[in-house]
Write a structure and sequence with these properties.
It is built from 31 helices and six strands. The chain has about 700 residues and is mostly helical.
Amino acid sequence: MNLWSTWSLAIRQWLDDPGFRDNRRIRLVLYIGALAVLYLVLVGTVLPPRYDFQAGQISPVNIRAPITAVDTKATEDARKAAMAQVPNQYVQDPAVEQQVLQQVDALFGAAIKVVSDKQLTQAERIESLAAIAPQQVSQSTLQALVGLDSRQITILQSVADRIVHDLLDQPFTEEAAKQAALLVDRQMLNYDLDRVSRLIVQNVVVSLLKPNMVYDQAATEAARQAAAKAVPEKYIHKGQVIVNKDQEITDTVLSQLKDVGLYRSHPNYGVLAGFALFMLILGGLLASYIERRGMRRRLDNLSLLILSLILIMMAVIIRVAKGIVNAGGPESIAYLVPMSMGAMLITVLLDASLAWMTSCFTSLWFGAAFGFDYGLTLVSFTSSLVGAYTVNKVTHRGTFMRAGFLVSLVQVFAILAMSLTDTETGGDWHTTWLHIGLGALGGLGSAVLTIGILPFFEGAFGLLTAIRLLELSNPNNPLLKKLLMEAPGTYHHSLIVGNLAEAAAELVGADPLLCRVGAYYHDVGKTRRPLFFVENQMTKDNPHDRIAPSLSHLIITSHVSDGLEMLEKAGLPKPIRDICATHHGTTILWYFYNKAREADKNGSVKVDDFRYPGPKPKTRECAIVMICDAVEAAVRSMSKPTPNRVEGVIRKIIRDRLQDGQLDECDLTLQDLDAMVGAFMKTLKGIYHARIEYPDPDKIRKEVSK
């Protein structure tokens, strides 16, 4: 035996050890370890990818927005443009009118004063008036003004005041100030003045007029903010291409990467914590379901380890698919993921009901990985359920291919249904047909991968699947051929026990295939000393007649340990070895005990010295084979096996096993045992049925010749 075989055998023995399978601490470690690994594998599927680009670099991948988010740069640019369209805001200042009126009144008042002073010369009057007149008032206007008398000046003052009031009592802007002469001329039409008076009033008023609208910064800012607020936000929609492969990274691209959370920054602790809570909820629900299963469906630690490995394998597949999408691959690749493979493996290796339950969790993980996509979750869940259902009873490897076609068909209809109900992509038949094609391939791939991976679990963990059982039932198996060649009586006994056990198992809900195949191998230990067993003695010579009953007991009972050694060396799974180990339980060899008791003159023979070493059956399959082994041997030894006598023998055997406590450690009920009697009777009638006596042809010929 090489080193690898030694290590393999040691690991398998450790995995089969009850100290591993039933240890609660190991069970707790498996739960926590599996949940931690699943979290670490899957958390990357919900975290958005991070890029550390700089402006001017070339993008190595196509990047699409994983979510719909506000495009901050586009929104800001649009709002700046809207604010720029808002003009400055002004308010009318009434003090301007008062100031201009005061200047008008001051000028005309000074004019009246200098005109009234008879001692001043014309030049002195003009000089005095020019000293207080605004610079814009021309010299000719001043000369004309001092040439008038006080009454005329008072009239002009009144006209000037009215014109100023009319113009400055309303908004008078910079643009209006530029057209002051024209506006004053229009106002002058309302007054009956001569040409000189018109020129004086026009020059004075135009010289003093100025805008009365003052810039209001607060109002201007408020108007611009209102304009900016009225601009709607610009969005980056989910799936929108932010940058294509080999395209330059611009400031706009960097801004959009930040907006959708793809630019490298600090980790998103919210997502990390949220997904951890999500996984804790799912893990807690799954653990509760596993721990609350009945005894008949309880998972030991080895089964829990296998379940964890399958779930981790599915998580890795989801992670790889999401990694391809993040690297710029098409999102349609999600439909190619063989999600039903996990359900098929769990059904074949463990249990169909467990596969249906875990399908819920793997489908939720799958949908979460691709943006919590409800459609993908539904497609994965329905295909997983169909996959688990179709491989629930495997009779040959073609079952997997049939399952693959059915899963593909269901995926096609599920994808079509989701596509038709999707209001965003409804009507895009190119995409729909692409998804349907990938989904069909994914279904077939699930079946192919299941067939390919199944032998790994069978070999690595010594698991007994339906496929493995069918292989072991092949008569060309070396152990069965050895049994046939060296112990033919035992071989045929095993075949009948297998038929009885299979029929009984179907009635009580046990595994019929395991019972039949286990029965084939339960007596292989008899090949070591076949002639010591009566079914292989072709003559009347019985070697037990020449040895002591105690030695006979030792030889007979050793066929169990010999068989276990041979089965373990051949690598047969533990359930088969358990059937071999328990097919006699701790029953008594009554024949040799009675023989020893008759030869014992001192009364020292004890009945317990003639028991099998055990153990007692712990499963229904082991108990069924134990009863079938005894029934077949007892019925075969009957000289006249009538139905009533056969039924009586069967019920006596079952009653003896019950009274001896051989069935105390298994979960067969009295109702199961009663149902088994009917199955035994039906099968035995087919074996020991009455046959007509065929006439002798030679005798018939002689009678005819006479």
